């Protein structure tokens, strides 16, 4: 039936924009929930919500599309937003709090994968794996007598500055310690359970690091946290890795620093205006780009779905949520 508008005995879950692999939610969980699919409706969204979603208590977010006051005002009965993402910047948490809407996210299920990609990007930038891959695949190795790939840089011994020592940052630290790097960090608050040196200033952290790895979430406090001064403090050999959110870095300034050689390189999985990536970066061999893929493994996507569904089930059974966002 169109848009899933049927009278069903199953609990209704509003889906405004489908999350990745929504077909799997449908095939595996349609016996538990009735998914109300707003995007399939020919009605304008406002009208659809006012007409069909006024009594809906729970919604499943796509993990990307904004859930802000302009949407929430059409959903007076809403009590839960579940997002199958780690990041929460697409959700207006204070508006949710004001309206008594709980929020549950993917908790730490993606942390290992995200940390793996961060370390992979760092190794790629330092050891020029993508450059070398292109060199071989383009037939340059076989066709040239000289060896034009510049030397890479050793990972062991590098001073790594982690921004955000949450579960992703901690996984990055564990991995890079095993590679013989030294770890320091910046976080909202010092974490006494870790002995890594803490810097309350990102500028000081950058000054004392060979690479910065951004692992924090995007908020008003972290927007453009990495500005021109921080980038210049990182220096000409310094590398920046971002698996957090694009807007944590002032992207325009970063592009300029990379183009002018004011920093040494970058490994970026996230961008300010996805899916648009500054074209200037395409020509730079010291920059490795991935399209927001850090949490994309079969295993983690399945865990994210299971946790999202677990939260929905808990909600409808009046049980505690499995991964409620604490400051919500
Ligand atoms: O970026 C991915 C996520 O927030 O899960």
UniProtKB/TrEMBL annotation:
InterPro entries, sorted: D-isomer_2-hydroxyacid_DH, D-isomer_2_OHA_DH_cat_dom, D-isomer_DH_NAD-bd, NAD(P)-bd_dom_sf
GO BP of this protein: photorespiration
CDD domains documented for this protein: HPPR (cd12156)
Any one cellular-component term (Gene Ontology): cytosol
Gene transcribed to yield this protein: LOC115973276
Enzyme class: oxidoreductase
Gene Ontology MF terms in the entry: glyoxylate reductase (NADPH) activity; hydroxypyruvate reductase [NAD(P)H] activity; NAD binding
Pfam short name (any one): 2-Hacid_dh
Sequence ranges assigned to domain D-isomer specific 2-hydroxyacid dehydrogenase NAD-binding in this UniProt record: 119-294
Protein name according to UniProt: glyoxylate reductase (NADP(+))
Domain D-isomer specific 2-hydroxyacid dehydrogenase catalytic: 48-325
Assigned keywords, A-Z: NAD, NADP, Oxidoreductase
Family indicated by similarity: Belongs to the D-isomer specific 2-hydroxyacid dehydrogenase family.
Record keyword Secreted present: no
E.C. designation(s): 1.1.1.79
